[in-house]
Design a protein that fits this description.
Helices cover 68% and strands 3% of the residues. It is mostly helical. α2 (45-52) crosses α3 and α28 packs antiparallel against α29 (555-568). The chain is elongated.
Length: 692
């Protein structure tokens, strides 16, 4: 070992801790003098080889003895521990011994187990992957930890719970505490210092040890965070950061960020908190200020910070450190932040709940951890609605925050098609904060879905009055006017939205659709083209432009836009039906039926898809199926003139003239002009039914 230099490097177990006491040059000189005395005193060549090349002499002996043992044992296992250190001088020897016969044959029933912090060197062992199994060592499960404790006679439940809490299931710590056989929770010492010493036992440089402990405080690291948390001279920062990145308990998290392994970070945090509670709080406070400053810098770059992942990440870190520092308003602020986190999506809400769990555990603050656990459980079982319900019932929130929470709950309920419950939440939000424009905007959507267009427009009027420069709100009101067929009002609002924000692709597309319906096809084409310039993958604008191409009698471009729209959104029933109609008009009824089939599989209540499929089936001569579809369409919408026209023609083709005449009479009652729109072919089929 001295010849390999491992003692001087402090790499040998047991010897390692004393290596710092030895002078490397003196040690090397001593080795040389020792070798000279050996050469002078040993009697033969084999004695000299034993000292100068012990592995060449002793490995064959080891292999012979293993072979002898293999004759009386089904398996032999060789365990090589602390391999991240011993592997430096054992790895090549082990590879040679196991893969060649240079020193003799390894018994086939031998299993070699290396235990270390790093995987095997792929450059050396990569070609033997079929003979190697990696077994990641994770913390004990609760059952495993209890089993080990019971084996040592530790079974009292309060004691077991305290051991589980303090060790986090880390095997070496569970074992350490089990050996002391505590009989009372007060007898269970905190093993954190022992754990930290084990993790850093090979590192004697005080600056490195201090950096490793300091960098355990943040939940994640990059070079900027490292500089903020590490107290060392500027010239040492880069070397220290490079060293830390190479530590086995530090892993890449993505995006250049590092993260400590939990089994290492948790005892480090506990040891630092126990050593200096005031120092812990002050360092946590400084980190919160650091992350808060970075967050404010990103805030200036965008109007919607909660939609910005970078902003959210910095805010998460800021609130985490405020909670760890024990700031008085930290928990109420975290709960207020949970509301917009839910609005940003269930995934973001889960991150916020996890933040509370982590901060509560890391700072040993039961109230914070309990909130995080309960919110996580609510999100996992019943989703955002339940989690926000918990916050609304138990947290102290101001009226604007409560109103915002009601809006988010309303949105979730609306997504579940629970429209009356969603409307009730929006009503509560408006009552709590009459100046909350977003509440009126969202209530308008639910009111329209419930069929109350006038109330929906009244809500949008209020939202626009509160935020007159909000292009999105003005555009939404224009879209509601379009849906209500108020074309002049729609064009007015959509033009104003474009004036407020010329990059509002929604306003351009909606105005284009309005102009298409009113017959201004050139203006519609220009508007929809502008929307697609701003957002090339805008499926709705593509499908609407397809209608313009239909009006301009350009079926090739019509189908091209519909194909692109469906490539972007293949499960869109309306676009499927639109393409089916285009294919039917082009005489491609078999393909049209396939699109109608798909549309109806996505939306079984799609009335016009039944009517259109009935028309294509009739063209294909499949009259019975066609009649079933047309009957279904008319049954769902008795005043559906187009479906009645197609059914009248079909009845006539099937020589069911009485029924054909009945449909013609019904068409005359509903829309006499529809009779004038029959094609010559349809008129010929209808014959006397139409004349009557």
């Amino acid at each position: 070992m001295a010849r390999a230099g491992v003692v001087a490097m402090g790499m040998v177990p047991v010897v390692g801790p004393f290596a710092g006491m030895l002078d490397s040059e003196e040690l090397a000189g001593g080795v040389d003098r020792f070798r000279e005395r050996v050469l002078a005193r040993f009697r033969d060549h084999e004695d000299v080889r034993l000292v100068l090349a012990p592995e060449q002499v002793l490995t064959p002996v080891l292999l012979r003895e293993l072979s002898e043992a293999a004759a009386s044992a089904p398996w032999i296992a060789l365990f090589l521990d602390t391999y991240e250190r011993t592997g430096l001088y054992l790895d090549h020897w082990l590879h040679e011994t196991m893969t060649t016969d240079r020193h003799g044959a390894m018994p086939a029933t031998t299993v070699v187990v290396t235990a270390g912090q790093r995987p095997l060197d792929t450059a050396l062992w990569g070609g033997l992957s079929d003979f190697v199994t990696d077994v990641p060592l994770s913390p004990f499960t609760e059952a495993e930890a209890r089993g080990l404790l019971a084996g040592k006679g530790v079974t009292a439940e309060p004691v077991v719970e305290e051991v589980l809490r303090l060790t986090g299931g880390l095997p070496v710590l569970v074992s350490t505490l089990a050996e002391s056989r505590p009989a009372d929770p007060d007898d269970v010492g905190d093993p954190s210092a022992t754990a930290v010493e084990r993790f850093l036992k090979w590192e004697r440089d005080p600056a490195r040890r201090a950096a490793a402990l300091a960098c355990a405080l943040p939940r994640w690291l990059d070079a900027d965070v490292f500089r903020a948390v590490t107290d060392c001279p500027q010239e040492q920062l880069e070397p220290l950061y490079a060293w830390l990145r190479g530590m086995p308990f530090v892993g890449e998290r993505g995006g250049g960020r590092l993260r400590y392994h939990d089994v290492v970070r948790t005892p480090m945090l506990r040891a630092e908190r126990s050593r200096s509670p005031r120092g812990w709080a002050e360092r946590q406070r400084r980190l919160a200020w650091t992350f808060g400053g970075w967050r404010e810098e990103t805030e200036a770059a965008g109007d919607e910070p909660w939609a910005d992942e970078t902003w959210r990440s910095l805010r998460l870190a800021e609130v985490y450190h405020l909670l760890c520092a024990g700031e008085r308003d930290a928990l109420p602020q975290a709960l207020r932040d949970f509301v917009p986190a839910c609005d940003a999506g269930a995934g973001v809400a889960a991150q916020w709940a996890r933040l509370l769990v982590d901060a509560g555990q890391d700072a040993d603050t039961a109230a914070v951890a309990e909130w995080g656990t309960e919110l996580t459980a609510a999100l996992d079982t019943e989703g955002v609605v339940a989690a926000l319900g918990l916050v609304l019932r138990r947290a102290v929130l101001d009226a604007p925050t409560q109103a915002r929470a009601r809006v988010v709950r309303g949105d979730e309920l609306r997504g579940r098609a629970a429209y009356p419950q969603a409307l009730a939440e929006y009503d509560r939000a408006v009552a709590l904060d009459p100046e909350l424009a977003v509440a009126y905007r969202h209530r308008a959507g639910i009111r329209r879905e419930l069929g109350d267009d006038d109330a929906a427009l009244a809500d949008l009027d209020r939202a626009v009055a509160l935020e007159p420069d909000n292009s999105w709100y003005v555009a939404l009101r224009g879209e509601h006017h379009r849906l209500a067929r108020h074309d002049a009002e729609a064009v007015r609002d959509l033009s104003e939205a474009i004036r407020l924000d010329a990059a509002n692709e929604f306003a351009w597309a909606s105005r284009g659709a309005t102009r298409e319906r009113s017959g201004d096809l050139d203006a519609a084409l220009a508007d929809l083209g502008r929307a697609l310039d701003l957002k090339p993958d805008y499926a709705w604008a593509l499908a609407r432009r397809a209608r313009v191409w239909r009006g301009l009698d350009d079926p090739r471009r019509q189908l091209a836009d519909l194909d692109q729209a469906l490539a972007l959104n293949p499960d869109w029933p309306w676009a499927r039906c639109e393409r089916g109609d285009a294919l039917r008009a082009a005489g491609r009824d078999e393909e049209a039926v396939a699109d109608f089939d798909r549309a109806l599989s996505l939306d079984p209540a799609y009335i016009s898809a039944y009517a259109s499929r009935g028309a294509s089936l009739a063209n294909l001569g499949r009259h019975t199926e066609a009649l079933d579809d047309l009957n279904r369409a008319v049954g769902l919408r008795p005043g559906y003139v187009w479906a009645l026209c197609r059914r009248a023609v079909l009845f006539a083709a099937m020589e069911r003239l009485t029924e054909a005449r009945a449909d013609v009479e019904r068409i005359r009652e509903l829309d006499s002009g529809a009779l004038e729109r029959f094609s010559d072919t349809d008129r010929a089929v209808l014959g006397s039914a139409l004349a009557g």
